[in-house]
Specification:
Elements (H helix, E strand, L loop, with lengths): L12 H6 L2 H11 L3 E2 L2 E2 L6 E5 L6 H12 L5 E5 L8 H12 L12 H11 L7 H13 L7 H8 L1 H4 L24 H9 L5 H8 L8 H12 L5 H21 L11 E6 L5 H13 L3 H4 L4 E7 L3 H7 L6 E2 L5 H7 L8 E5 L5 H9 L8 H12 L3 H14 L6 H6 L1 E2 L2 E5 H9 L5 H10 L5 H9 L22 E2 L5 E2 L2 H13 L8 H14 L3 H10 L3 H11 L5 H12 L11 H8 L10 H14 L8 H15 L7 H11 L1
Parallel strand pairs: 3-6, 3-8, 4-5, 5-6, 7-8
Antiparallel strand pairs: 1-2, 9-10, 11-12
Helix pairs in contact: 4-7, 4-12, 5-6, 5-10, 5-11, 5-12, 6-11, 10-11, 11-12, 12-13, 17-18, 25-26, 26-27, 26-28, 27-30, 28-30, 29-30, 30-31, 31-32
């Protein structure tokens, strides 16, 4: 099976932008059925769940995965956000229909147990007359062998669900066939076909359900019908139908001449699984109820899901289960974590951002008319931090408006291609903060000045600056917004969203509730009180106090180890900048360091170094690294003799820029 395609061979730019080779290989690893005595066998697998903020390419990943699975491995796909109030039986019918499509090496998977349950649920029973209800269910099951096309029967039951699956919306008969048996039974020919098929096992299974039960199957089916019509019974019905669905899959993988060649599980793909937690919880419960059998005789199914609203992420993070980086993810890592309750639960994997090289490839694809692809790539990656959706929007605007030379401010203020009413910057913010109340957005703008969520929480408690409450459960502190973790382990805002909101903060005036100076000033004072040296200098630089920051760092130059001093320097120079971007990088360095006499050592070179690094860190200044690399190296050389025993460390740092 070729799950991974060569994205470069496609003329469509989307696979290049969202080509996720490592993620696709990871899916294949969790689908693999290792051999035992020369025969492929299933192994316990979790619900492989890819997490990321809006626009991080989750749906595109499933698109690419589905394209690779097509015609090679049975798979099904549902968008949980579009399921609405659909019942578990309809959703499972939709999954079974898609999995039952003929596939090389797998034949046609059949679902006799699931269809038996669906037939029993379709009857209108009067459970107060138990014997009559039993006869009604038996009458429904007598008709089962006469179903000429079981997959089409499933499609009819799941018509409204399948219409929401893009690739299946036009399946013949999904909407036009009748809702029950009359449209599917075609007399004697079907009875003859039914005589060739053994479908009796579906009924028997409900008596034992692979749990060692010894119940009458018809009684169980009558009870199932009653629960489906009772308040609160939908979840229990879903659990039984999931168990029947999985039993059909296990049986189907054991049957057929090619059973010993099925080296991969079948797959179910769930878009936006947070909207379908009730549905997938039935799968988890059905799995757990099998007990040790779930490990000894695992299901030949790999569920791949995407999560954006973070219901799963928040639930598991509270238990210490943060998403795994793609570099560390794998079956071995899962197995080490996968004892006890974790075995059937989600295995969360964080989607990577695009690398600078990938962004460079996309910029090159815009054509040779751009004057400096390297500079544009650095600017786009520096602003979007590789976020796929934001990168795509920036590149679309550059291509649409033929901006050259490219100014980041001009790109963000340009109209969205195809929509002259909306600016690119506003559209990007809306993508991240869809359905977020305006007052929450305004508070997020204020909190964007904070370096991490802990700083933002302190800021939120200072009521004059925020509209809402300082409660950690407030929408302002939603996990999808504060989804990154810095080197110190603190949660931070999505970088590109923070830059967009900081731009709005810089546009506020002194008459607004919280402008740039008031917010950064408050944070600076609080950091000083907390003896947070990096935070104090960071916010001081954001306020433009270059001389204050320079003299503080000069005092520390020979007091702390050189490596620690360089770490502090980087944290400080990562400060945001509210100033204009009219000057070139070189001119800006000279303008902001005029106060320092050239012969004042190490003050003068240190001031130039601070402004240069601050400028380089801000993509609004064009990310023209080559313009400042030489000066940064020279300034590091000049201050190195004043670093105590750190001379060699600073000279080595200078060599990186040289």
């Amino acid at each position: 099976m070729a799950v991974v395609r060569n994205a470069q061979a496609s003329s469509d730019p989307e696979p290049v932008l969202f080509g996720r080779s490592r993620e696709l290989l990871l899916v294949r690893e969790f689908m693999r059925r290792p051999e035992h005595d020369g025969v492929p066998v299933s192994r316990p697998v979790p619900m492989l769940t890819f997490t990321g903020p809006p626009g991080s390419g989750k749906t595109a990943l499933l698109d690419e995965l589905a394209a690779g699975l097509e015609q090679n491995v049975p798979f099904a796909r549902l968008d949980c956000a579009r399921l609405g109030p659909s019942s578990p039986q309809k959703a499972l019918a939709a999954l079974a229909f898609q999995l039952s499509r003929p596939c090389r090496g797998y034949g046609t998977l059949e679902f006799p147990r699931l269809i038996t349950g669906q037939l029993a649920l379709g009857a209108d029973l009067d459970v107060t007359r138990w014997k009559l209800a039993r006869r009604q269910v038996e009458d429904e099951l007598v008709a089962y062998p006469k179903i000429s096309d079981p997959p089409q029967f499933l499609a009819t039951l799941a018509a409204e669900v399948l219409s929401a699956v893009p690739a299946l919306g036009n399946v013949p008969g999904v909407v036009t066939l009748g809702q029950h048996l009359p449209g599917l039974v075609v007399g004697g020919i079907n009875a003859l076909l039914g005589g060739r098929r053994d479908r009796g096992d579906g009924r028997k299974w409900f008596g034992h359900q692979d749990k060692g039960l010894a119940r009458d199957p018809i009684d169980v089916l009558v009870e199932l019908n009653h629960k489906a019509r009772s308040a609160g019974g939908s979840q229990e019905v879903g659990e039984v139908l999931w168990a029947a669905f999985l039993a059909d899959l296990r049986d189907g993988f054991r049957r057929g001449r090619q059973a010993d060649r099925r080296t991969l599980n079948c797959a179910v793909l769930f878009d936006d699984v947070d909207a379908g937690l009730e549905l997938v919880s039935g799968l988890g419960i059905a799995h757990r109820q099998r007990g040790p059998l779930a490990v000894d005789d695992p299901d030949p199914l790999t569920v791949v899901a995407t999560s954006s609203r973070s219901a799963l992420v928040r639930r598991l993070s509270a238990a210490g289960e943060d998403p795994v980086a793609i570099e560390s993810a794998g079956y071995e890592d899962y197995a080490q974590r996968g004892s006890g309750r974790h075995r059937a639960g989600p295995y969360l994997v964080r989607l990577d951002d695009l690398s600078p090289e990938a962004v460079g490839t996309l910029v090159s694809a815009l054509g040779p008319r751009l004057s400096d692809n390297r500079r544009i790539s650095a600017m786009v990656h520096g602003f979007a931090h590789g976020h796929p959706g934001a990168t795509r929007m920036l590149l679309d605007a550059i291509a649409e408006h033929r901006l050259d030379p490219v100014s980041l401010d001009a790109v963000l203020d340009a109209a969205v291609p195809g929509d002259g009413e909306v600016r690119v910057a506003d559209n990007m913010v809306t993508t991240f903060l869809v359905d977020v109340a305006p007052d929450v957005v305004e508070d997020l703008v204020t909190c964007s000045a904070a370096r991490n969520i802990d700083q933002a929480l302190r800021l939120a408690r200072y009521r004059p600056l925020l509209l809402g409450t300082g409660d950690r459960n407030s929408a302002v502190f939603d996990g999808t917004v504060w989804s990154r973790v810095d080197d110190a382990g603190a949660r931070t805002m999505i970088p590109v969203l923070r830059r967009l909101l900081l731009r709005r903060l810089a546009a506020r005036t002194e008459h607004d509730r919280a402008d740039w100076a008031s917010v950064h000033g408050w944070l600076r004072r609080r950091c000083e009180q907390d003896q947070d040296r990096a935070g104090e200098l960071h916010h001081a630089l954001a306020l433009g106090e270059v001389e204050f920051v320079t003299r503080k760092l000069a005092d520390l130059l020979d007091q702390v180890p050189a490596r620690a001093w360089l770490v502090l320097l980087r944290e400080v120079c990562a400060a945001p900048d509210a100033g204009g971007h009219a000057l070139s990088p070189v001119e800006r360095v000279r303008e902001l360091t005029r106060w320092a006499p050239p012969r004042d050592l190490p003050i003068a070179p240190l001031a130039r170094l601070i402004v240069a690094l601050w400028t380089v860190a801000d993509p609004f200044h064009g990310a023209r690294y080559r313009d400042l690399d030489g000066e940064i190296a020279a300034d590091l050389d000049d201050i190195a003799p004043y670093a105590g025993d750190g001379l060699a460390v600073l000279r080595a740092e200078a060599d990186k820029y040289r």
